[in-house]
Design goal:
The complex is a heterodimer of chains A (207) and B (232). Chain A is an alpha+beta fold. Helix content of chain A is 37%, strand content 29%. With 232 residues, chain B is an all-alpha fold. Helices cover 65% and strands 1% of the residues of chain B. Chain B has 9 helices and 1 strand; from the N terminus they run αβαααααααα. The chains are: A alpha+beta (207), B mainly alpha (232).
Chain lengths: 207, 232
């Protein structure tokens, strides 16, 4: 005696939506002729899928692009928003005010980039660096873990300030902190990919 | 034309299903699916029918009657349904007796072909009749009277309304996922790839939408006193 299997819900739904190949249609219909269970499940699938498809057809939503280009879509959306006259005027005014704030007389602008070489040491000898718009940290004695290390910068109170990935380069691994850190004491923490703390470094941003 | 050639001519057509069946279960009713399904030894029953065994005819009828009714009802409506089912069995059993069905393993395929031929013939007859009558009667006859069944129309409208509510209750992203699958007919691998989904997430979204559809259908049926079973 032969033994055959029931049709899956997915295939029954595709059949109801008329999306199976001719050979599959023949096979499924031959089975439906003798199978109460699959006929019942076909009705269920059709009662849901067909009205849903029809409603989706009536009121389609515009497709977003691929997930990988989502950033481009976002940027495009932002550009379209800010290109509107009311937003463009506000944006231009904000840019002027920011420029005045940065370059007004007596205000010392931050240097674009400061670099700091860190080593894990115990004691009171804390490396320091001047204020800058960006900070390039080099971890000279970072352990070799075989995977990328994540970097977390916290302030003296342990509050998170920045997070990002490191990159291996000559002389150790590097992390570019793309924000100006206010004067104060900080800790740079290295984590491996499972999230375990590997090393912690202290540094100071001078006032 | 031999029966075999008839089979070959018709294998690329499909049966149309568009209507509810008698005793159709309510929305969202859970269906149990046995793991496997054992089929009859066709050669034995075919041999007995050839020998004129009435019990074998009854067995054949018991196996295929519901399925044949199912497709005939969906394609042609309930009018003359019993006669049409009977006609299909007469054709099948006569063919078996005459030895036209040489390979018993093809029995299911042959029954399907007979059903399809009956449906095609009925539609052709109806179209011809309508053409000839339209000349002296104004649409007195309609092929699809059964499609204008008020209860069917009500059910269709209710399902459409439930579908609309389900869709308005989900996010634009989820709606796009459903649209890609149901309207754009994209394969789920492509949808998962482009929308950043795992296969399980995709299935979960569909099953949640379906469950919501079922729940709303049940509530609607309860509130309005409407049965989602076809009256038959």
């Amino acid at each position: 005696m032969d033994k055959t299997f029931h049709e899956s819900d997915e295939r029954l739904e595709l059949y109801a939506l008329d999306r199976l190949s001719d050979s599959d249609v023949i096979r499924i219909e031959e089975h439906l002729l003798i199978c109460d269970s699959c006929r019942d499940r076909l009705d269920d699938a059709a009662n849901f899928a067909v009205p849903l498809r029809d409603e989706l057809r009536k009121n389609p939503v515009p497709h977003r692009s691929r997930q990988s280009s989502g950033v481009m879509d976002w940027l495009r959306g932002q550009f379209q928003t800010w290109a509107k006259p009311q937003f463009a005027l506000t944006g231009a005014l904000a840019m002027v005010l920011i420029g005045v704030a940065i370059f007004r007389p007596g205000n010392s602008p931050l240097v674009p980039l400061a670099t700091l070489q860190l080593t894990a040491m115990r004691g009171a000898d804390v490396k320091s660096v001047g204020p800058a718009r960006e900070l390039d940290l080099t971890f000279g004695d970072a352990p070799v873990t075989g995977g990328a290390l994540n970097v977390e910068i916290v302030d003296a109170g342990g509050g998170p300030v920045w997070q990002g990935a490191s990159r291996p380069e000559a002389g150790g691994i590097h992390a570019r902190i793309a924000k100006a850190l206010p004067p104060g004491d900080y800790f740079a923490r290295l984590y491996d990919s499972p999230g375990h703390l590997v090393h912690e470094y202290a540094f100071r941003v001078k006032g | 034309m031999t029966q075999t050639s008839v089979v070959n001519d018709l294998v690329n057509t499909r049966l149309v299903r568009s209507q509810a069946m008698p005793d159709e279960p309510a929305f969202g009713a859970e269906k149990e699916r046995p793991e496997s399904f054992r089929i009859t030894d066709w050669s034995e029953i075919v041999a007995r029918i050839r020998d004129g065994d009435p019990a074998a005819m009854e067995e054949l009828y018991a196996i295929f009657a519901k399925g044949i009714r199912y497709f005939l009802l969906r394609n042609l409506g309930s009018e003359d349904l019993d006669d049409r089912v009977h006609d299909c069995f007469v054709i099948v059993t006569e063919s078996i007796r005459k030895g036209d069905l040489r390979d018993p393993a093809r029995l299911m395929g042959y029954v399907r072909t007979v059903v399809k031929r009956q449906i095609a013939a009925s539609i052709e007859t109806a179209v011809t009749k309508r053409r000839s009558q339209v000349e002296y009667e104004e649409s007195l006859f309609r092929i699809t009277d059964w499609k204008d069944d008020p209860e069917q129309s009500l059910l269709a409208r209710q399902r459409a309304e439930i579908a609309r509510k389900v869709l308005t209750g989900i996010s634009t992203r989820d709606r796009e996922i459903l649209q890609r699958f149901y309207v754009d007919e994209q394969p789920q691998e492509q949808i998962c790839d482009e929308m950043g989904l795992t296969y399980n997430q995709f299935r979960l979204l569909k099953s949640r939408a379906k469950a919501r559809f079922g729940d709303m259908g049940k509530r609607l049926a309860k509130g309005m006193g409407v049965s989602f079973r076809h009256a038959g």
